[in-house]
Specification:
Elements lengths: L2 H24 L6 H8 L7 E4 L5 E3 L3 H10 L12 E8 L2 E6 L2 E5 L1 H16 L23 E5 L5 E7 L3 E7 L1 H12 L2
Parallel strand pairs: 1-3
Antiparallel strand pairs: 1-2, 3-4, 4-5, 6-7, 7-8
Helix pairs in contact: 1-4
């Protein structure tokens, strides 16, 4: 499955999850003519995420689309927009629960690995890119002496794949010049 197919599958899965949460809630809200017209067009959803472990709220989708949607709503019809929250808990060592708008899903290690892979593939194509330097206060889990595999590419590049205990197999491609720089960096004393 190539990156575009994976992104498509991820988008479909996220849309289905959002629809499962938002659709039952929408049935309890009277529909206005503006909302009926909006349902015929593609809809961007805004989801607010809250991590129980860290207690920080983060907007995960286009806030600009929400602002544009509210700006197009006539003043006499107040916009009612339900923003389900994402809650993440860890009830057991080998389980994570995710709750969106009251709907809970328990994820085991294999499913978490699949979710990390799908999110990583999607994030790789998004902007802005991650910061070029290590952010202050960044929390991480380091893997000591990871299992590695190296493959020479036809253009002279080297593919290095390392197994991280949290992220799984993480691939990196290095040009010949970067291989030399990496060697010098690792042997610098």
């Amino acid at each position: 499955m190539n990156l575009h197919e994976q992104l498509g599958a991820l988008e479909v899965g996220v849309d289905q999850l959002i629809q499962a949460v938002v659709a039952p809630q929408a049935e309890n809200i009277p529909e206005t003519s503006a909302q009926a017209a909006a349902q015929e067009a593609p809809v961007d959803h805004v989801v607010t995420c809250e991590s129980k472990a860290e207690g920080e709220a983060v907007a995960t989708e286009a806030e600009a689309a929400a602002a544009a949607d509210q700006a197009s709503t006539p003043a006499e019809e107040p916009a009612v927009r339900i923003q389900p929250t994402l809650e993440i808990n860890r009830p057991a060592r080998n389980e994570i629960t995710m709750t969106i708008g009251g709907q809970m899903v328990a994820l085991r290690a294999e499913q978490i690995g699949q979710l990390i892979e799908e999110l990583s593939n999607a994030r790789a194509s998004m902007t802005p890119e991650p910061p070029p330097g290590i952010p202050p206060g960044w929390r991480f889990v380091s893997t000591k002496n990871p299992v590695m595999a190296v493959q020479k590419q036809s253009n002279g590049d080297r593919l290095l794949v390392m197994r991280h205990t949290g992220h799984g197999w993480v691939p990196f491609t290095f040009s010949p010049d970067m291989v030399i720089q990496l060697y010098m960096l690792l042997t610098k004393g």
